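#onboarding

Welcome to the new folks! Below is a worked example of what a typical request in this channel looks like: someone posts a single protein sequence, and someone else replies with the predicted structure as tokens. Don't worry about understanding the tokens yet, we'll cover that in week two.

Example request:
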Amino acid sequence: MDLTRLTIDPVGHKRESLLWNAYIQRHHYLGHQLMPGAQLRYFVRAAGEVVALPSFGASAWKIQPRDEFIGWTREQRERNLHLVINNARFLILPWIQCKNLASRVLALAARRLAEDWQARYAYRPVLMETFVEKPRFTGTCYKAANWLCLGDTQGRGKLDRLHRNAEPIKSVWVYPLVSNFRRHLCAE
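Example response:
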């Protein structure tokens, strides 16, 4: 597969949306779930054939490794959290076997995501985050795409009000979209 000829296009109309959802439901281990809030979904193609499907949406409300890395206060986080977006799903179709495809897809997405987000939502995100379930995955493609591993979650999940730690532990990865992301995120 020729990685220099990959294209990445946002999901546009309803038919594409239904197709994207069907691929994720059938082939992603978490399946398809509706994402609340702002989001972008993409088709990545090689020679016109769909090979990968990433999506980006609202960031996690509170994640200790990320929040310590940024260095923001609770008030700054509440005011600027929308500038962090989450790589919520990332699927390379199971019949596609191509070395370095995953890191190439992540690089393509990183190059165009801020502009696409600006066009749709009238603001530019400055940091991407994702969570890699351990031990199911190791995050190799994120490392190869120059994402930073910040540590692990506590396994609580966003709805764990009783501190039961019933969710899988995940490694937290981030990718700055601008060099001065902290200035934006810690702005008053």
